[in-house]
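fyi for ur records
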Amino acid sequence: MDVVAIGGIGDVGDDFLPRLRQRIERELDIPGSNLLVNASHTHPPGRLLCGNDELVERTFGAVREAAMGMAPATVGWGRGREDRLTMNRNLRLRDSRHWTIRHANPCPPDDEVVGLGPIDPDIGVIRVDRADGRPLAAVYNFACHPLFGDASGAITANFPGVASRLVEEHLGGATALFLQGAGGDVIDVSFKDFKRPRDIEPLGVALGLAVLEALRMVETGDADLSVITETIALPRRTDIPERIGELEREQSRLLASLRFTCLNFKAFLPLYLEHALHPEHPADYSYRYLQEESVRADGLRAMDAHTRSCVEKYLANIRAMEKLARIQDDIATLEHHRALNDAAGEPTISAEVQGIRIGKCVLITSSAELLVEVGLNIKRRSPYEHTFVVAYSNGYIYYGAPAADYSKGGYEVTECLLAPEWQEIYERKASEIISRL
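which gave:
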């Protein structure tokens, strides 16, 4: 489904999935636990969908149409690659902390950034052909984060929608289905581009062409199918008061670092540019400095030193202000998630883990916004070469961040309801299900 999440946030109600599963089981005699509902995690402007009752009706209608139209088919699987579209949005800082690239806060100063986090460039593909060899469907799995669409908002499915359209056009009537991957800390590389209107077409075309290239290499044949669906209890985090305390101490430190300066922004900007462009002679032409030296005067040099001190103070204040604004937002977010956990009245969150094996290809799900590292861990531990991690599926429990990230201050950890121990529990269960498929 081209929605932000299956329940929790966005347009889909929390009762959508159980109601849909009950109806499918009752009217189509398909076990409800066999149903995988994945959100592409697109972020359309405003409400996208119809009401929840009609949403259940329409979705059930699509499943019923598929069930009634079943026919013999062959299937194959493969892998493509696209590493030019995405990057990890958690910048690694000199102090070992993380700073998340978001529109809600500025980027950190360049001299504080020392590295990037990982991405998963693999595109998992499943090709389904009719008995006569004509393409019937293409499923592709890719870790991305389609946050904002084009400037007009006309394509609510974002760039995976463009990719699916391209795949369908080239396959001549086949259906293309996008499955979101472990892309909780991924963005497209042009996310913070303020120099031109946002255009999702190039992103979608590049992804679609990579999918088609991967599908071209896939040979189809017979395959068996197995499904395992289990629910696990993941611990809710209890460290939010301590995290808020750390932020408040940092807030106090930054407030104390602010210093008086004779400049306001109107005075600061031209002085800053002068000193940046001409550090040796910011105030005037070089010959004026030479003339002063010839008469043993130092008025320009003394003025430059004073101005440089004022500019550096003002710049330090700006950097402190940017960090203070982010801290203010982080504290509010943590307080919101503490309220969510408190309102739940229980120490754990129920989360579904589903494994689907199609021949020698495996899909494993999570209802969390898995960060890349977790998805890569699942793939590395799987005995199946073709393992697709399908996050944002069968529910929504906010972010699933690696335990090692909790002390580093990224946005996903701030938005997380789970205690760090969740990662080991989930990865162990995912590996266990894969081994039993």
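The longest strand covers residues 225-235. thats all i got for now
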